[in-house]
């Protein structure tokens, strides 16, 4: 479907609203997983694994002592007790990382450290504290006063993993536990998915640079920095480009250039239906397919998405609240899918609403809010200020509370869906 | 208290165990907040704010239009209705970022865009859709058929924040919402706490480098990479140093050097009571104060902490599970306190235990586990393999389940404390 919105304002008012879910589906149908690259293990943290990793060897790969003690042949201890102790000769000493130097025969034991390889002939380790040491004619002995069960304190080969077992599935985010696994199996050059590069444009001549002094009637450009942070958090690499002034020709050229250089393009501002908005014009053209330009949601109903040569453009609202929500609902899943994450959407859980929400709307509302834990249950509280234009409550929110279209709102105590925002701890 | 453990193994067995809480208290009494540095806003993500930030101006700092429409003097619409509409002359047009160019007088209105400054004389904005436009003798008019309430669609100055209000408290971690606030208020050089530099040593000659081929009886050095990941996640900057072989002289010199260069020193391995352990010797010396060398916990009971010239040394177990837990319970809070985070400990919540835990112990157990959400309630499930030596279950855990010392274990359905692991999403 090629649409043209270039014949001006009248045309722009004609927006066919679709649901968030439909919008997400349209977007993801255009998203392909990014390429694989290899990074050294110390740089792999936070990256997404690009391939399944199978265990190249069992783990542990040798029978490991679980104690500091003596490796014994358990049958040597059969029938022994406090009254009839058994004396066994210490013939070897096996520190961690060394191999046994003597083959055990019945009646002999090896001193062994935790983590060291148990001699093949031994089938148990008895801890130091259960033994009494003695010497006789220059030879060392231990005395044992109870039977030792076969297998005691010996970690068998493959206890944790068998060779060939799936240890890490692709699409997994790498943190401490995964990195430990990769190191254990000697995987230093880790196959990860390339971070999608994301160009960020702000539009609107009302925007001041962050370092510019305040001016009456103008606001500072905060959305680009917020978006850069969201993009990084989602696993992309943000590139803040020069703000686009309200000039269609220049804007179009800049966006064209960005499509060449980056994997995704995100703009903020200029998507409302006012006279001075240009995003709709911008995505018009034979080679651009409009995916949607209105969503049945608040805030951010005029969020727009388009695709050009297989690359996605998202035109998010200039209102901070709407820009934030638009990113989380549409751009994050796109980046997540490019990264090969299995479920790229915000995690949805059902919780109790802690305070009534009475603002009604014919569109679904995504209300910033906070989860509180009460007696093992989560309760969601909507932010005091949740207007699209409000910036200050974003920082205090860890969920988006989903308020369905309704003429009466939702009462305190009713169950609601909430979408958990990432990075909330 | 200066202690010497250099007279060998006998001495090493004498360890006085203290509780986790007491250990944490001892550590934190030596921790001072790190210095402040300023970083550019785009690099501030994930950093910890070093100073309170007060609003340098109200926000919004001008009366902002919440709609595309017309700025009106609401008293002009008094008594108007469908039968008796009012006609008002359009005398100005105010795009976003521009200032009104005409002072309104009764009977006149300004066309205005969302986000633009409302003229001082106007006290309401009426949306386009509620008006009918007309022209007469070259002048533009709008027709209104209902009264407009004062204040409609006008965001007052300071709605979100008053000048001087606390907007971000020190100790706060900066993510998208905070970054948006900083940008909005023009704070580009952000005061953040310096990342503590943390030296990591592994000890033990059994360790192979990650890239070395597997050898019988030896394991790869995975803890240093795991620790580096945990340190980064906690907000520190990890430095993986050469592994220390089991040679006391070299080890002591390397650790001395690290104390000079780094803010914290963490070692892994060599803290058990076997013959070949050297950490206890290593922290002996007149200038080293031992804080503890045994904790009443599993895994990791032989975790050691010492302080030298105000700098902390943590000697963690070489067992992956114990090393992981030791870091989370002791090193993370130390780094967090250096960063000025208010509550540097893992967040503790009370949840139901999903499956019985029968392994008993006279020490408190910190069992790796997973939280699952069931009908708005969290339920904690212990990992199948939770031995100290087990590495593979770390990656699948998002909590440590606290099992108090007990002779009977904990039944399914009982409430337990769990410590939430960071980075779990």
UniProtKB/TrEMBL annotation, chains A, B:
Enzyme Commission (EC) number: 2.10.1.1
SUPFAM superfamilies, alphabetized: MoeA C-terminal domain-like, MoeA N-terminal region -like, Molybdenum cofactor biosynthesis proteins
Pfam families to which the protein is assigned, alphabetical: MoCF_biosynth, MoeA_C, MoeA_N
Keywords assigned by UniProt, alphabetized: Magnesium, Metal-binding, Molybdenum, Molybdenum cofactor biosynthesis, Transferase
Pathway(s): Cofactor biosynthesis; molybdopterin biosynthesis
Cofactor(s), by name: Mg(2+)
MoaB/Mog domain residues: 199-337
Secretion signal span: none
InterPro entries linked to this entry: MoaB/Mog-like_dom_sf, MoaB/Mog_dom, MoeA-like, MoeA_C_domain_IV, MoeA_C_domain_IV_sf, MoeA_linker/N, MoeA_linker/N_sf
SMART domains hit by this protein: MoCF_biosynth
Transmembrane region(s): none
Record-stated family: Belongs to the MoeA family.
Protein name: Molybdopterin molybdenumtransferase
Organism: Paenibacillus vini
């Amino acid at each position: 479907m090629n649409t043209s919105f270039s014949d001006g304002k009248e045309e722009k008012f004609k927006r066919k609203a679709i649901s968030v879910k439909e919008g997400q589906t349209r977007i993801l149908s255009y998203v392909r997983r990014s390429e694989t690259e290899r990074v050294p293990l110390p740089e792999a943290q936070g990256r997404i694994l690009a391939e399944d990793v199978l265990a190249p060897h069992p783990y542990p790969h040798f029978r490991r002592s679980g104690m500091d003690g003596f490796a014994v042949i358990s049958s040597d201890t059969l029938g022994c007790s406090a009254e009839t102790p058994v004396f066994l000769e210490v013939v070897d000493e096996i520190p961690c990382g060394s191999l046994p130097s003597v083959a055990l025969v019945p009646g002999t034991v090896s001193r062994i450290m935790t983590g060291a390889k148990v001699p093949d002939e031994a089938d148990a380790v008895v801890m130091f504290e259960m033994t009494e040491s003695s010497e006789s004619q220059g030879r060392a002995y231990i005395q044992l006063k109870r039977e030792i069960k076969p297998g005691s304190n010996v970690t068998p080969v493959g206890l944790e993993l068998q060779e060939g077992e799936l240890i890490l599935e692709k699409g997994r985010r790498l943190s401490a536990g995964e990195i430990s696994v990769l190191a254990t199996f000697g995987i230093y050059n880790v196959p990860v998915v390339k971070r999608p590069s994301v160009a960020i444009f702000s539009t609107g001549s009302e925007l001041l640079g962050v370092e510019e002094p305040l001016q009456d009637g103008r606001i500072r450009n905060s959305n680009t920095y917020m978006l850069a942070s969201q993009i990084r958090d989602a696993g992309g690499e943000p590139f803040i480009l020069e703000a686009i002034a309200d000039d269609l020709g220049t804007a179009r050229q800049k966006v064209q250039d960005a499509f060449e250089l980056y994997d995704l393009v995100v703009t903020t501002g200029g998507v409302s239906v006012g006279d001075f908005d240009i995003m709709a014009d911008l995505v018009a053209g034979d080679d651009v397919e409009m995916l949607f330009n209105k969503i049945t949601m608040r805030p951010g109903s005029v969020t727009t998405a388009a695709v050009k040569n297989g690359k996605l453009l998202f035109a998010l609202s200039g209102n901070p609240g709407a820009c934030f929500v638009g990113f989380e609902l549409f751009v994050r899943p796109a980046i997540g899918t490019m990264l090969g994450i299995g479920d790229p959407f915000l995690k949805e859980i059902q919780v109790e609403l802690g305070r009534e929400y009475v603002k009604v709307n014919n569109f679904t509302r995504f209300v910033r809010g906070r989860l509180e834990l009460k007696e093992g249950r989560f309760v969601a509280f909507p932010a005091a200020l949740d207007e699209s234009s409000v910036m200050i409550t974003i920082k205090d929110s860890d969920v988006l509370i989903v308020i369905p279209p309704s003429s009466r709102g939702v009462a305190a105590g009713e169950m609601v869906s909430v979408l958990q925002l990432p990075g909330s701890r």
